[in-house]
Amino acid sequence: MNPLLSKLQPYPFERLRQLFASVTPNPALRHISLGIGEPKHATPPFIMQALSDALGTGLAGYPATAGEPALRQACAAWVERRYGLQLDAATQVLPVNGSREALFALTQTVVDPTQAGATVVSPNPFYQIYEGAALLAGATPHFVASDPARNFAPDWDSVPAEVWARTQLVFVCSPGNPTGAVMPLTEWQKLFALSDQHGFIIASDECYSEIYFRDEPPLGGLEAAAKLGRGFERLIAFTSLSKRSNVPGLRSGFVMGDAAVLKKFLLYRTYHGSAMSPVVQAASIAAWGDEAHVVDNRNLYRTKFAQVTPVLAEVLDVKLPDASFYLWAGVPAGWQGDDAAFAKALYEHEHVTVLPGSYLAREFNGSNPGRGRIRMALVAETAECLEAAERIARFVHAHPHKV
């Protein structure tokens, strides 16, 4: 077996299952889960129809790894509408089977484990694929804590020069999971300068970009590069239909950016066997071509967060995020920062699942930046999320201190 597999840590939801194993939740209450970030809003009927229509002829041949020209063009057209950028659909866009698969695969493409000290830099807390992809590529992760005092922006200045010198890949997540923070242009400028100096590639995970609460849509990595008057050298952005269009089961997204990097990525994917089904491609073309359902979906989240956030803000350290469908909340002071104990007791007393923030981060340089916080995914219907918030408030009032 691949010895690098032994370096992988248990996934957060496996740790949560173990945490709850000895608990019998309140049987008088139905279970409400705010744990998993899986969209629950209805899939738009026109996407389902496009999928159904394609079944008649869409399975008769092997799909091309690069995707059909019509899909790449639909992706490029969306980028132009969303960001005002004109991409070459043939060389700067590549369809992928969801951003998760692509984030992992790009890491295997980019990292050269024969180089001494090969390093992948990741925000902390983070999406667990970043760490797993780095480890299985033979690299060492270096974690950069998100700073609550700066809207949870990663503290890039904390990375020593000798680490940057060994860095081959940097993950950026904006809007962030779990914080919902959007990286501003000044941070992008700093990271681009470091990339120019040290030659590392930037992987910008932007799968939450279409769920936001401000008037201005979140800044994208390629958009930031254009605003700064630079090209897309060593920059790859990832986006997905899962959250935007409520189709996580479709497994469809695309990557965009540096044509030279994407050429190598396509080569890797050709051998990896990552071609997207023609049926999925047909549904994806329909989804990328329509914006009305995205506006409707965003409005559902805005209404939901407007109702739920004030209820939770009365008992937890939490505020409306920039974007995404998560609330990143601090547990009450009386719980002494024990986010796992808080989640366990909440599950026992109120049958509500939240994810301990420490499970989404790593102990690094003596601290775990997720400690003392919980992540809540407001993906269910408003009434269910509001009921969960009211139960959480009731629990905190009854248990202001650690149980």
TrEMBL record:
PANTHER family the record matches: AMINO ACID AMINOTRANSFERASE, L-GLUTAMINE--4-(METHYLSULFANYL)-2-OXOBUTANOATE AMINOTRANSFERASE
SUPFAM superfamilies: PLP-dependent transferases
Name this protein carries in UniProt: Succinyldiaminopimelate transaminase
One function term, GO molecular function aspect: pyridoxal phosphate binding
Keyword list, A-Z: Aminotransferase, Transferase
Cofactor: pyridoxal 5'-phosphate
BP-aspect Gene Ontology terms: lysine biosynthetic process via diaminopimelate
Classification via Pfam families: Aminotran_1_2
The keyword Ribonucleoprotein belongs to this UniProt entry's keyword annotation: no
Enzyme class: transferase
Superkingdom of the source species: Bacteria
EC number(s) stated in the UniProt entry for this protein: 2.6.1.17
InterPro entries per record: Aminotransferase_I/II_large, DapC_beta/gammaproteobac, LL-DAP_aminotransferase, PyrdxlP-dep_Trfase, PyrdxlP-dep_Trfase_major, PyrdxlP-dep_Trfase_small
Residue span(s) of domain Aminotransferase class I/classII large: 32-392
